[in-house]
């Protein structure tokens, strides 16, 4: 079983839901990456989604855009992130998933990227600008190296499309809870819950909900239906402001969900 | 869409939206259903005589087509070689070729039941064209424009507002055209059910490069029959400027199978390719993925997109559309570049010799074509796509020439 799937199922079995924080590699300099990852691990994160900065992040809201610009200004490159992960990998026991736009990967070379990810112990890769139709070359390269290509499925997509992507998915399914970009949101569409339930029924691997989730009560709400949540902008913002308490609170809100539901 | 009777041997894109290896659909999953819907709706509209008739009607009575293919006698004399013709897209309503695409896509969006139109704009030409089409067709219009461009193009912002559009200032990134495209894409992802994105050049995810090309093909189709009428034969060379690539692909496409016609795409060399301050993706870039397509791009070693630089805001974009990227690799089109300074010289030359003030974008094509014509014989023919008029550029040109005493 995939390392990521396993970690999520373990979190589920221990009475809560999986919690996957997103952080921007190089925000504040790559020098702090180890400390940040160890902190998240210590606080109980199930896995970490590590963002690679890109000059034109068309799927991201303002918080992650700005974090990416800070990381780029600090000289962060995909190559440097992979090298740093290699160095610190032995101390980090939770799965690391890269979230990167396609162009840095093309520039690196797809085969070389997949190979180097494997050497750095990367468990999965998410590429927001590669939809199902364009995913084959990347999936092939990653698969040869035992790395999951994590697929995004918007809950608003037609059922037939959801089914098609869900069948091809590996690691977990990233359910996009809102039509839109990353960022903090107060409310979600009225049909989100039922669509999430439908997707859960269809899926043979865990389903994590992401995009817009930023508060402990939202984590608990989604954690009842989904196998876990991904929280991006709220974590990136809190790390930038050095508000570690908020991050601990968010992560602990994912524990004991089954109990809370009873 | 007007008169697509001639047969094409060259066929692209394929089903996956690829021109050779270029193009494709590199967008978030959320947009895929909209792109598939757009493709179906477009194929359907193309086959519907009522749609074609409506578009032709607007192109004729509203845009003012067909516009002339003008023999520029004094420019020819000045070049001292081949005969030079100008395809007068500058005489279109709103002053450039952009309106051909804006009206076509707005009509398509309306047919699809969309109520809202969004567009990106750099200098404001495409924004004005889209605002115009939306006024005409009674649709809501939102134009994304970089903060820096809003500052540089105040009057065009006001023009769009007069036409009833709302202009959204984009502060992200460098506040220029590529950031405006990013923000338009972000807005579209969040509002895809009632909104159509009228992309302004032969760029973006499939089927946009094909749709924009088809709506701009009228330029080449008219040129082809006009030159046959005037000269009884096809031209030896056709020259057009390349920003994202819409006027050029519209001009070139009907000539692609006529191998005796040499095609030249002229990019903006800004301060010079060697300075790194330019917008010549095909001459000075390498392939990558941006804004939904795999195409030639200005980028650094790590795959971060570089800023483009050109005196002409309409060429100030770090990529060139997928079909051009393909033609670059196959060699069917020759791509070259012209500096800011050379474009300014050409602008002055055409103004003085013919009484035609060309857009700074088009001036790039004029410069290269004059150079080309001067090395050809007097029985040869060169056609320039004069993509737009230069009224919008008067302030920029004045500022650029102020290096001296402010006089021309
Ligand atoms: C007059 C004119 N010509 C050319 C261009 C360049 O665009 P494209 O390469 O899509 O024709 C523009 C863009 O704004 C323009 O306004």
TrEMBL record, chain A:
One of its GO terms (cellular component) is cytosol. The lineage of its organism: Bacteria, Bacillati, Bacillota, Bacilli, Bacillales. GO terms for molecular function: tryptophan synthase activity. CDD domains: Tryptophan_synthase_alpha. This is Tryptophan synthase alpha chain. Pathway: Amino-acid biosynthesis; L-tryptophan biosynthesis; L-tryptophan from chorismate: step 5/5. The gene is trpA. Belongs to the TrpA family. It comes from the Bacteria. InterPro entries: Aldolase_TIM, RibuloseP-bd_barrel, Trp_synthase_suA. Pfam families: Trp_syntA. The alpha subunit is responsible for the aldol cleavage of indoleglycerol phosphate to indole and glyceraldehyde 3-phosphate. Keywords: Amino-acid biosynthesis, Aromatic amino acid biosynthesis, Lyase, Tryptophan biosynthesis. The active site is at residues 49, 60. Tetramer of two alpha and two beta chains. Its EC number is 4.2.1.20. It catalyses: (1S,2R)-1-C-(indol-3-yl)glycerol 3-phosphate + L-serine = D-glyceraldehyde 3-phosphate + L-tryptophan + H2O.
UniProtKB/TrEMBL annotation, chain B:
InterPro entries: Trp_synth_b_CS, Trp_synth_beta, Trp_synth_beta/beta-like, TrpB-like_PALP, TrpB-like_PALP_sf. Keywords: Amino-acid biosynthesis, Aromatic amino acid biosynthesis, Lyase, Pyridoxal phosphate, Tryptophan biosynthesis. GO terms for cellular component: cytoplasm. Pathway: Amino-acid biosynthesis; L-tryptophan biosynthesis; L-tryptophan from chorismate: step 5/5. Signal peptide: none annotated. Residues 65-388 form the Tryptophan synthase beta chain-like PALP domain. The keyword Amino-acid biosynthesis applies. The beta subunit is responsible for the synthesis of L-tryptophan from indole and L-serine. Belongs to the TrpB family. This is Tryptophan synthase beta chain. It comes from Bhargavaea beijingensis. The gene is trpB.
């Amino acid at each position: 079983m995939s390392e990521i799937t396993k970690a999520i199922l373990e979190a589920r079995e221990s009475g809560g839901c999986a919690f996957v924080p997103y952080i921007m590699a190089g925000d504040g300099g790559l020098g702090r990456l180890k400390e940040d990852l160890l902190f998240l691990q210590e606080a109980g994160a199930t896995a970490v989604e590590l963002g690679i900065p890109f000059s034109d992040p068309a799927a991201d809201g303002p918080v992650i855009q700005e974090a990416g610009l800070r990381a780029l200004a600090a000289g962060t490159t995909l190559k440097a992130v992979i090298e740093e992960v290699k160095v610190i990998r032995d101390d980090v026991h939770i799965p690391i998933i890269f979230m990167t736009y396609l162009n840095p990967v093309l520039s690196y070379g797809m085969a070389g990227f997949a190979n180097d990810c494997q050497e750095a112990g990367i468990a999965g890769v998410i590429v927001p600008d590669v939809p199902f139709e364009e995913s084959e070359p990347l999936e092939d390269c990653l698969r040869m190296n035992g790395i999951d290509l994590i697929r995004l499925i918007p809950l608003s997509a037609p059922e037939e499309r959801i089914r098609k992507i869900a069948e091809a998915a590996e690691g977990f399914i990233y359910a996009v809870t809102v039509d839109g970009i990353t960022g903090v949101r107060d409310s979600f569409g009225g049909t989100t819950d039922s669509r999430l339930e439908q997707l859960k029924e269809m899926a043979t691997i865990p389903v994590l909900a992401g995009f817009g989730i930023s508060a402990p009560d939202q984590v608990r709400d989604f954690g009842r239906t989904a196998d876990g949540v991904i929280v991006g902008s709220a974590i990136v913002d809190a790390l930038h402001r050095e508000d570690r308490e908020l991050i601990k609170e968010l992560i602990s809100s994912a524990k004991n969900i089954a109990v809370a539901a009873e | 869409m007007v008169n697509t009777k001639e047969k094409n041997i060259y066929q692209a894109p394929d089903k996956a939206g690829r021109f050779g290896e270029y193009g494709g659909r590199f967008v978030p999953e959320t947009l895929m259903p909209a792109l598939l819907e757009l493709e179906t709706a477009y194929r359907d509209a193309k086959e519907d005589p009522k749609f074609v008739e409506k578009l032709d009607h607007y192109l004729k009575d509203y845009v003012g087509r067909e516009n002339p293919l003008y023999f520029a006698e004094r420019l020819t004399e000045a070049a001292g070689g081949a005969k030079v013709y100008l395809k007068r897209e500058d005489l279109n309503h709103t002053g450039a070729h952009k309106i051909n695409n804006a009206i076509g896509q707005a009509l398509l969006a309306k047919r699809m039941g969309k109520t809202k139109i969004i567009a990106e704009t750099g200098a404001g030409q495409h924004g004005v064209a889209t605002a115009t089409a939306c006024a005409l067709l009674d649709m809501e219009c939102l134009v994304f424009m970089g903060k820096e461009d809003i500052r540089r193009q105040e009057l065009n912002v006001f023009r769009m507002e007069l036409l009833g559009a709302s202009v959204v200032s984009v502060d992200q990134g460098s506040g220029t055209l590529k950031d405006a495209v990013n923000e338009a894409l972000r807005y579209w992802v969040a509002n895809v059910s009632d909104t159509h994105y009228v992309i302004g050049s032969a760029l973006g995810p499939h089927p946009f490069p094909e749709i924009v090309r088809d709506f701009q093909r009228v330029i080449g189709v008219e040129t082809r029959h006009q030159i046959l009428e005037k000269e009884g034969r096809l031209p030896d060379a056709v020259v057009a400027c390349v920003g994202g690539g819409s006027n050029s692909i519209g001009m070139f496409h009907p000539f692609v199978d006529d191998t005796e016609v040499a095609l030249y795409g002229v990019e903006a060399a800004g301060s010079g390719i060697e300075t790194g301050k330019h917008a010549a993706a095909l001459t000075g870039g390498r392939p990558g993925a941006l804004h939904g397509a795999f195409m030639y791009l200005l980028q650094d070693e790590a795959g971060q997109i570089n800023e483009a630089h050109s005196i002409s805001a309409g060429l100030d974009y770090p990529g060139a559309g997928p079909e051009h990227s393909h033609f670059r690799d196959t060699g069917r089109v020759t791509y070259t570049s012209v500096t800011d300074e050379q474009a300014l010289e050409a602008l002055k030359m055409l103004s003085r010799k013919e009484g035609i003030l060309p857009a700074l974008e088009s001036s790039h094509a004029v410069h290269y074509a004059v150079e080309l014509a001067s090395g050809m014989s007097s029985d040869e023919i060169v056609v320039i796509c004069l993509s737009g008029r230069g009224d919008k550029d008067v302030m920029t040109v004045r500022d650029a020439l102020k290096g001296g005493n402010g006089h021309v």
